[in-house]
Every structure is written in C-alpha cells, then in structure tokens.
Specification:
Length: 526
C-alpha cells in the first residue's frame, strides 16, 4: 500500500505509516496536474491546508481509499466528490486546538501592545516610545464568535488575563457557556460592547464575510479584531476600509480568503499583524495531528473502525438495506430543523413509530444530529462525532420508540427545544424511497424534502402569499410547489415553498418584510 503526502507533516506520523508496512512518498508543492498524473498509484493521500484535493484529483485516484487531513478544516478537500467515490475523508480534530488558541492570544497581546509596528520602527532606527503606547487586556471585553474547541480554549486563556468574555455560538447552550465562564450575547451586543473580537468558526455559507461593512460599523470605536479561523469570515476589503477610517484600531489576521498569498492591501497597514496561516504550526501540534491522521489512515487501510471520518455512516451492513432511505430522511429532517430553529438548541427528542422501532436506532438518531449540526459545522461533523458534539454542547438527546404509526409504515417525529422555543417535524419515506415532511409544528402537509425550500409562518389573511410570490418573482426565483398549512381560519399559518434556485440573503430579508409574514427561513437541502 502507498500513501502520498502532499504537505509537510511530522516524521512521527510517517513512521506510524511505515511501521504498518505502508510505503510513504512525500511530494510537496505539487500542482493539481502533477497530482492528477500520479494519484492513481496511491491508496491514501495526506494533506494539511495548502494542497487542494479537487474533484479532478479524486476522480483520477482510482485506488484511493482515504484522504487524511492533518488538521481540522477539510475545506481544501472536495468531500462530496470523495464521498460519491466511496473514499473516506478523515481529519485530526483535536491535535492543534491549543496551538491555534495560543496564536490567537499572541495576536491579541501583540495588537494590544503594538509590538509589530514598534519592533519594525526600532529595527528601522526609531526609538519611539510614546507612539507605541498600548492598552491592557485586563478589564476589557473579548467577544468570541464560535465557542467550539479553539474558542473555548481562548475563553480560558483570556480569563487568566482578567478579560470579561462575551460569546456567540448558536450551537452552544447557556449551561456550557456558563461552565466556560462565558456570557452568551447576541452578535449586536458583542459588536456594541467588545474591545476585542475573535472568530473561531468554520467557513460556511453563513459565516463567509459575516463581518463586513455593516457589522464593522456597529462595533465600538477602536475595536481590535482577530481571525485565526478561516480567510473570508472577516471581509478583507471592509476591514481595510475600517482600519483606514480609524474605526478599527488593529487586526490580527492568520488566514486569508486567497491562500497562499503574498499580496494584500492589508499588508500595507501598520495596524495589521499578519501571519501566513500559522495557527497549527507548533512542533507539538504537528506531531499530534500527524500521529492522529496516520493512525486513522492505518485503520482505514486495514478495514478497522475509523474514529474521525467526516463522511461515513457506521451502520451494520445487514441493517443498511432497511435503514438507508430513513438515514437519508432523518438527516434531511435534521438539516431542515438546523436551518429553521431560532436560539441555541437544548434538547432533542426523536420518536420512532413503526417497524423501525424494533432496531437499535442509534445510527438514525446520529444521522439526525449530523444533519442538524451540518448548517453550522459543515463537514467537520460526522456519524462518528455527532453525538459527541451534542454532548459537548450540553444538548440532551432522547429516543422514544412506539409500534403505532397511524397511517404510515414508519413515522419519525423530531422535536427540538431551543432557548427561544420548540420546533417539531415529522416525516416518512414514500414512493421511490423519497423522504417527505408530513408535519411542521402543528401543521399537516406533505412535501418532498429536497432542493431549496422557504419556510414562512404568517398570519392567515389575503395578499401574504401573493407578496411572497412577488418578492421571489423579482429575484427570478421560480416556485416549484407550495403548501400552506393552517389550523384556524384567520389565525396563524405556515407556508412551505419548494423553489428552483438558491435564495439569496437579500431575498430572504425582503420576504421577512412582507406584511403579515412572521418569520422566514431559507432551507438548503441540496
Ligand atoms: N489558523 C489555523 O491554522 C487553524 C484554524 N482552525 C480553524 O478554526 C476554526 C475552529 O476550529 P475548532 O474550534 O477546532 O472547531 P469546532 O468545530 O470545535 O468549533 C467551531 C464552532 O463554530 C460554531 N459555529 C458554526 N457556525 C457559527 C456561526 N454562524 N456563528 C457562531 N458560531 C458558529 C460551531 O457551533 C462550533 O462550536 C475552524 O474553521 C478550523 O478550521 C483550526 C486549527 C488551526
Ligand atoms: O495544517 C495547517 O497548518 C492548518 C491547520 C488548519 O487550518 C486547520 O486545522 O483547520
């Protein structure tokens, strides 16, 4: 067996592979074409963040069984293409947490004390003390967006410096935050009060450029920002303008929208401290992630149970035939819920009625959790780690089994309680093994769970559905199906629309303004 190592990883990991009888070829800084030409000879590939494993490479990897990421983010790997080809993608989710949290603190301290411009000035022959007077961290408010592994460590470190921590993470409960000593706040509150803001979430459709001109304007004058997560979460052009205008006092940036890069307008500003994606670059972290990913690769190549795969279910083969359509249905119900609830999730109850209830339903519940977390965690949540992620966030998960199904051979009902209310959905598998949603809260309907959907609770009165249609029409979005559920004439109702294209944020905002519409959620099930 042969492994191709495309980015520099610790020798300790390579030794693990070699000790398992695997031939290791280290070929760094290869172009996509070069990798396409050789990847057919390998069963496994290892990368860090630099090399992109594209669909072309995956398609050329005829013998590929596993792609290992020596680190957390798998956004440089086409996970969907790998999954389609049955290739396991695994990562090393924990080995570099401390390294990234410590780099964040380094940026924070360096920004507070203007270390970078002061050092440059001194080396350039200027002994300029008063120009480089800084601020203290003690007594300041730190806003942490994303309270996962790294965000939580940063919270602990910053508390040791006497900072007050405000946190925002839709997937973390008040209780978990309290245990971390973090006060959960809305984004608006953090923007209004924080002296320092640091981001620690994956790059998703939701987080991409989530800090841009509008958000920067809401921030306290003289705020300092740090991005050691993913390039693009803070809009680079908007940040540049906010620093030039004096609104933002400084920024520490480790990651860039385009990487690698040696050119950026931000590089010309002395208030900006930049590092070339060094979050995980400590000797310790590199040993940790290389060991973790190499052990995982050995497990995959030896056909053993994998621990940190981001794209495979763990269902016994004999149950797979029964479970397959329901695994897909329940993951979609989870994705639907994950995109339509308000507030942080505290409790999940899944009720299984019908023949399914005879089996161990753990994989199905796990599939629901995976779907529910997907909108925020993207590919870093998987069948192996979804229950662990729920536990980490203090979310209570329970299953109820009953033989009675009313009208369907199997009916799955998922109820999610959040800090802001409860949402319940029910679904089943109908013709051609397609998943259908049959109930949302108290409203009965029957809609195929796929593609692009809009969920809009509203008052049951004239002109509202017309208003929704007009907004979609103005955005050239075609409505494929529409279902309206109501219980009392003239009371509250819900509209579920299946549309033919993605709904841009602007259109969602306009839909929310239609008179009588109570809430609007865009659900992407593509
Ligand atoms: N600069 C570097 O070299 C490194 C960067 N990273 C990056 O740091 C980020 C965080 O990593 P971990 O803490 O290990 O991941 P994690 O998965 O433990 O935590 C991510 C957190 O972000 C939260 N989140 C998702 N969407 C959100 C939103 N819209 N608003 C607020 N919170 C949201 C999730 O609920 C989760 O708690 C990842 O993007 C990872 O790739 C990780 C290691 C090194
Ligand atoms: O491999 C690296 O150096 C980058 C680490 C990283 O960004 C991650 O683990 O998400």
């Amino acid at each position: 067996m042969r492994v191709l190592v495309c980015d520099k990883v610790s020798e300790k990991g390579i030794q693990i592979l070699q000790n398992a009888g695997i031939t290791v070829d280290v070929k760094l800084k290869q172009t996509e074409d070069e990798i396409v030409n050789i990847v057919g000879d390998y069963q496994a590939v290892i990368v860090r963040s630099e090399t992109k494993i594209t669909k072309r490479i995956i398609e050329a990897g005829n013998q590929l069984k596993v792609i290992g990421r020596a680190g957390v983010g798998v956004d440089n790997i086409d996970v969907e293409a790998a999954t389609m080809k049955g290739i396991v993608v695994c990562n090393a989710p924990e080995g570099n947490t401390i390294a990234a949290a410590e780099l964040t603190m380094s940026h924070m301290l360096a920004l507070a004390r203007k270390i970078y411009p002061a050092a440059n000035a001194l080396k350039g022959g200027q002994w300029a003390r008063s120009k480089y007077t800084g601020v203290e961290l003690k007594g300041k408010i730190l806003g942490i967006l994303g309270l996962g592994k790294i965000g939580s460590e940063v919270a602990k470190f910053a508390q040791a410096f006497g900072m007050t921590i405000y946190g925002y993470d839709p997937y973390v409960t008040e209780e978990r935050a309290k245990n971390l000593g973090v006060e959960i706040k809305s984004l608006e509150e953090i923007y209004a009060h924080a002296d320092f803001i640091t981001v620690h979430m994956p790059k998703t459709k939701e987080t991409y450029r989530m800090i841009s001109t509008e958000q920067l304007a809401m921030m306290k004058d003289g705020v300092r920002l740090i991005n050691c997560a993913r390039g693009g979460i803070i809009d680079e052009e908007a940040l540049y303008n906010a620093i030039v205008s004096g609104k933002v006092a400084g920024a520490g940036i480790d990651v860039f929208e385009k990487e690698p890069t040696t050119e950026s307008p931000l590089f010309g500003l002395e208030q900006v401290l930049v590092t070339p994606h060094l979050g995980a670059s400590t000797e310790e972290a590199q040993v940790n992630v290389a060991i973790d990913v190499s052990e995982e690769i050995v497990r995959v190549l030896h056909g053993e149970v994998v621990r940190a795969a981001v794209n495979i279910p763990s269902v016994k083969p004999e149950l797979m035939a029964i479970f397959a359509p329901y695994l897909d249905l329940i993951e979609r119900l989870g994705r639907f819920i994950g995109q339509t609830v308000n507030g942080s999730i505290e409790k999940v109850t899944i009720s299984y009625a019908g023949d399914l209830a005879k089996h161990n339903l753990n994989p199905l519940t796990t599939s629901f959790l995976k779907g529910m977390f997907k909108p925020s965690l993207q590919d870093s949540v998987n069948f192996v780690n979804a229950p662990h992620v729920a536990k980490q966030r203090g979310i209570k998960v329970s299953e109820i089994k009953t033989g009675d199904t009313e009208d369907y051979s199997n009916l799955i009902t998922a109820t999610v309680e959040t800090s802001k209310g409860t949402r319940s959905v029910a679904g089943t598998v109908l013709r051609r093994n397609r998943g259908h949603i049959l109930r949302v809260d108290d409203y009965n309907l029957n809609v195929e769970l796929e593609g692009h959907m809009i969920v809009a609770p509203h008052y049951d009165r004239p002109r509202i559905i017309g208003g929704i249609g007009t907004v979609l029409g103005e955005h050239e979005i075609n409505i494929a199906h529409m279902h309206v559920g109501r219980n009392v004439v003239g009371g509250e109702a819900i509209a579920i629309l299946s549309v033919d294209a993605a709904v841009p944020t602007e259109a969602v905002k306009e839909l929310a303004k239609v008179d009588g519409v109570l809430d609007v959620k865009y659900v992407d099930l593509t």
